[in-house]
Write a structure and sequence with these properties.
The complex is a heterodimer of chains A (about 220) and B (about 80). Chain A is of the alpha/beta class. In chain A, about 25% of the residues lie in helices and about 25% in strands. In chain A, strands 2-1-3-4-11-10-9-6-7 form a nine-stranded mixed sheet, with helices on both faces. Chain A has a two-stranded antiparallel sheet with strand order 5-8. In chain A, helix 2 links the parallel strand 3 and strand 4. Chain B is about 35% helix and about 30% strand. A three-stranded antiparallel sheet of chain B has the order 2-1-3, covered by helices on one side. Classes of the chains: A alpha/beta (about 220), B alpha+beta (about 80).
């Protein structure tokens, strides 16, 4: 599987994502600078965490309007698998690829800790490697992770199985305890936790591996 | 012309920063404060004399970048540049 990691000014999990992808897929991902206008031919795109553009205006807002994201929107519409972690999730909502918005944490604190999650829907290309309702631990590190969407959108997300991960003991005020969602077609994932930081025993946990393996299995 | 854009959270969207500001003011003895909402102001200098066109342009800018209409409302004021 050939993957790509998008790099924005002030991305800071791009190398973590690249290391995780190489370890699990056996191929070094292509690092794609945000000013590129066309994605190389790849099977999977990761939008990494960080503080793209210093979180100016709103987290992810400026990055979502960059040239490469225009091409990602187009190709995601044709089914290309895309995952955004943390700031990547914020960018995907700002780009309109995922519904809702990520707001300031309810407690007004940056939260940084291993976080318990529940896998809500394992019938997706991102979660097939987990067990039904499996409880996993993945690190979180964010200030703006408080997921918001109007009641109608939340209902649709629940109904069509688009909520993939929920927090156990909600750390940020996120509605419906949402930690990660996918689009209706199921090929775009956004989540605040960092699976790329849970792929080696030295990370303190390996619960992120199944996510990357699920994608690998799906695109094979 | 100049555009002054006020952006704030929609009514009903929880504003923890506003709430903290209100609480702090109350602690300081300003007990008339019952609520606070925090927003931001963006000022744009525009190279046009046409207020109507300016309004339409800024409207587009708000929808496409300046505001996130999932959670935010905006108000636009077009004024003469000083």
């Amino acid at each position: 599987m050939q993957s790509a990691v998008i790099v924005f000014p002030a991305s800071n999990c791009d190398r973590d994502a690249a290391t995780a992808l190489e370890k699990i897929t056996g191929h070094k991902p292509l690092m794609v600078w945000h000013e590129e206008t066309t994605l190389p031919k790849v099977d999977f795109v990761v939008i990494p965490g960080g503080f793209s553009y210093g979180d100016y205006l709103r987290s992810g807002a400026i990055a979502a309007r960059s040239p490469i994201v225009r091409d990602i929107i187009k190709k995601a519409g044709n089914g290309l698998p895309v995952a955004g972690f943390c700031n990547g999730f914020q960018i995907l909502t700002e780009a309109g690829l995922l519904p809702g918005a990520l707001m300031r944490n309810k407690g007004l604190r940056f939260v940084c800790r291993p976080q318990k999650l529940q896998v809500v829907n394992k019938k997706t290309m991102f979660t097939s490697g987990y067990k039904d309702s499996e409880e996993i631990t993945i690190p979180i590190a964010h200030f703006d992770g408080n997921y918001y969407a109007d009641e109608d959108t939340l209902r649709k997300l629940r109904k069509s199985g688009q909520i993939l991960f929920k927090y156990i003991d909600n750390p940020n005020g996120s509605l419906n305890d949402i930690a990660g969602i996918c689009n209706k077609a199921g090929n775009v994932l956004g989540m605040m936790p960092h699976p790329e930081r849970a792929v080696d025993p030295l990370h303190g946990g390996t619960d992120g591996i199944a996510l990357f393996k699920s994608v690998l299995e799906a695109v094979r | 012309m100049k555009a002054i854009i006020h952006i704030g959270l929609k009514p009903g969207v929880l504003d923890p920063q506003g709430r903290t500001i209100a609480r702090s003011l109350a602690h300081m003895g300003f007990d008339s404060v019952t609520n606070a909402r925090q927003g931001k102001t963006i000022e744009l200098n525009l190279d046009t004399e046409d207020a109507e066109k300016a309004q339409l342009d800024v409207e587009k800018m708000c929808k496409q970048l300046l505001a996130n209409t999932v959670i935010e409302d905006y108000q636009i004021e077009i004024v003469e540049q000083d």
